[in-house]
Design brief:
6-stranded mixed β-sheet, 11% strand, 36% helix, 174 residues, alpha/beta
Length: 174
């Protein structure tokens, strides 16, 4: 919950039942979506810290059930402005991914319509990924054509306009 209530424990019994149900219903791939109250860009340190903690917990839980992905929105910078909000997001994502060795990959879902969102364009998400991964600031404008693919040990980023199919921007796992 937004007040920080813990997710129910994933016992061996729960995991076994979940996997059996997935097999019965031929569900071979699934995505875990973090709660919508996540806000890594918040003015409140407690909200940012809890958001990072919850995302990391969801990554760990998703790995236990063999989920392929964990997806989240980054949050809104309405109370701190875009520059500070983006800095908070980058710091939070670095905390989330620090030492992560699980199998679930981390996806950033594009956000729209909530006002002052961080991660509202593919280009902005690609810049954030680069800053998190490399620790270096990126220009606020995309490369020529707004296209490109970058691969490293921890993520793959692709602008979906390069292909007819959609490849999400994603972090880590594996």
């Amino acid at each position: 919950s937004p007040q920080g209530g813990a997710a129910p424990p994933l016992t061996d019994e729960v995991i076994t039942k979940f996997r059996a149900a997935c097999e019965t219903h031929r569900q071979a791939l699934w995505v875990v979506h973090t709660p919508y109250y996540i806000n890594l860009a918040s003015a409140e340190a407690r909200t940012r810290e809890n958001s990072a903690r919850i995302i990391r917990e969801e990554l760990d839980r998703a790995s236990l059930i063999d989920a392929t992905y964990v997806m989240t929105h980054l949050g809104s910078a309405k109370d701190v402005g875009e520059e500070q909000g983006r800095a908070h997001v980058i710091e939070g994502l670095r905390r989330v991914l620090d030492g992560y060795t699980g199998s679930a990959q981390f996806l950033i879902e594009i956000s729209a319509g909530a006002g002052a969102v961080i991660g509202g364009t593919f280009e902005e998400i690609a810049e954030i990924i680069t800053e998190v991964e490399c620790g270096i600031p990126t220009p606020s404008t995309p490369p020529p054509g707004g296209r490109g693919r970058k691969e490293s040990d921890n993520f793959t980023a692709m602008n979906p306009r390069e292909k007819n199919d959609f490849l999400p921007l994603q972090f880590g796992g594996g």
